[in-house]
Amino acid sequence: MSEKRKQQAKLLRNFRSIHRTLGALLFVFFFVVSITALLLGWKKNSGNLILPSTKMGATTTINNWLPMEQLQDIAFNVLRDSVSSSINLDLDRIDSRPSKGVVKFVFKEHYWGVQLDGATGKVLSLSPRRADVIENIHDGSILDVVFKTNSNILKLIYSSVMSISLLLFTVTGFWLWYGPKRMRKSKRTP
């Protein structure tokens, strides 16, 4: 066996070892990432199971809407009355959809969402936002929630490890496919 073929074979063995070791160590994580990615891809087509559809309000004319403070009070009262009187009301965001006549309230500490008609304040939807939970699992930010970190450091570590691992998987997987072809080709040519 030529020196060049020996080096190619050694490189192929090293890549196979890296690929196998990464696969064994990160199997569960790759499984979770792939399932959550699939669910997130289907969230708007899940029949409101994963993500509640955006409802339609009475009017798209913002000038006819109630003041945001009043809408916020309605959303808070709905949560307290329908979910729990002690539920945390810290807002993550208020998502205003003028084209639909609706205002969505999304909260930091839980996964309930409230949709109100911007003009009347009528509750159009009070439902769990499962897509937010799935997204937090997918990107690793659930670790910061569980361990109560404020810096998102665990999400950063998780997403970095998963991204680098996927990159290594791609490179080693390509080489495991291409390497033997290259070795056969070099065997034929002197």
Automatic annotation (TrEMBL):
Keywords: Membrane, Transmembrane, Transmembrane helix. It comes from the Bacteria. The chain crosses the membrane at residues 21-42, 156-178. This is DNA mismatch repair protein. It comes from Croceibacter atlanticus (strain ATCC BAA-628 / JCM 21780 / CIP 108009 / IAM 15332 / KCTC 12090 / HTCC2559).
